Amino acid sequence: MIDFLGKTIQCGCGKVHKIPAIEIVCGRKLGKLSDFFDDAIFVADQNTVLLAEIPTDDVFVFTGPERVMATMENVQRVVDFLKGKNYRQIVSIGSGSLTDIARYSAFLCKVDFSCFPTAPSVDAYTSSVAPLIVEGVKKTLDAKIPRKILIDTDVIVNSPIDLLRAGIGDISSKVTARLDWVMSNFLTGEQICDFVWDDIKDLLKLIMKDVRKILQRDESAVQNLMKAQLISGLNIAITGNSRPASGADHLISHVLEMYQECRGHLPLFHGLQVAMGTYISLKAYDALFQDLRFKKSQILLKDRKKLLVDFFGQQIANEFEKTYLNKKRVETINVDNIRRRLQELYLEYRPILESSLLEMGVRELFSRYDRDFVKSAIVVSTMIRNRYTILDLYDQLDILDDFCDWVTEQF
Fold first, then answer.
1. CA-angle at 351, arms to 345 and 355, nearest 5°
2. Which CATH class name applies to 163-190+243-409?
3. Which of 83, 263, 275, 312 is deepest in the core (most CB within 10 A)?
4. Cβ 363 vs Cβ 376: under 8 Å
5. What is the mean pLDDT of the chain?
6. Which residues pair with 32 in a beta bridge?
């Protein structure tokens, strides 16, 4: 399915990349998991446990009426369950949240991790990190790379339609993430890797052209989406961080998720929120290339802190204020030079990216939120990570506030 697994590559970025030798098995009707995983404890929820045949004594099932969230509290529940037991590996049966819970539990318990994906909705399956909510804050933590991934084509093709939409949203974000990374490399000198773009860029085009086929559950199109998610996760493992897969698009998603988590509410699926962040990022690049002139208006630190407190409370606000104050800044900004550096990439992917987002229904997602809330979420997203993006460029130019007014009118 992926031809570079297990290889060592001398990359043009100056690093030697050792690609994890993950065993990936793909086929039909692979639901009897004991045939593929020895000495394993399976982690599932009330829905995903029905998608596979599992030994009843070797499963931890999250129960409850709501979707399971990737929180440190849920990781601790799995770790506590495993105390005194001698399983050799943890196997997740699910999509993003259950995968991240299981992989970080395996990391803490010092056992192997494998997974049975139930939807092509995220790139978590092959990743080396676990994004978790820790005391209300979304943090990306080092975790276990999987030993084996078992993909049942029937299961992923028939996954819920919103998870297919989420997969489209999540994979589309790799384009804006790349634009952000190239821009940061140009402006801040951040190291960049071309291999982790070259291995996925053509597949991204194919997927974004086939959005309708994916939503119609065309088997080949859904398998391509799954393959792209696996490659994207590998790119995170190869570089050792989420930069190849995550830019301003994911930071906006993290804000939306944390906001809901702080209030005990269930957020949208990760990829649906990422689709919103990707659309906002794309519009920011549109404005850059159209040379739209926004009015300058500095957002004062006291106003930023008030937003943080309103969103997350005082303690988390203090943490994010420190993150923002320590964020990298660019001394000299020449917008014409930035456009020249990004033009080829932007022009190649821009039309197909927007059409894919519109076809998966991104405008409907925005209709669920108040305009002022979306504007505030964009501003807050620039304060939660030390990662330079197009929104940080606008912030430094003191045009972020006016951009937020403009972009929320586009919905």
1. 135
2. mainly alpha
3. 275
4. no
5. 96
6. 53
Evaluate whether 211 touches 254 at the Cβ level (below 8 Å). Answer: no
Tokens 């990760």, residue? Answer: 270
Both structure tokens of 161: 């339609």
| Residue extents of the structural domains in the chain | 8-155, 163-190+243-409
Q: Are 251 and 384 in contact (CB under 8 A)?
A: yes
List Cβ neighbours of 293 (8 Å cut-off, separation of 6 or more): none
Q: Count of residues for the chain?
A: 411
* Helices (H), ranges, 297-361: 301-312, 314-325, 335-359
Structure-token pair, residue 105: 């539990």
Residue 108, token pair as written in the block: 């803490």
**8-155 has which fold?**
Rossmann fold (3.40.50)
- The tokens for 175 are 């384009």
3-state helix, strand, coil in the chain (%, to 5): 55, 15, 35
φ/ψ of 196, rounded to 5, equals -75, 0
- pTM: predicted TM-score of the whole model, two decimal places: 0.96
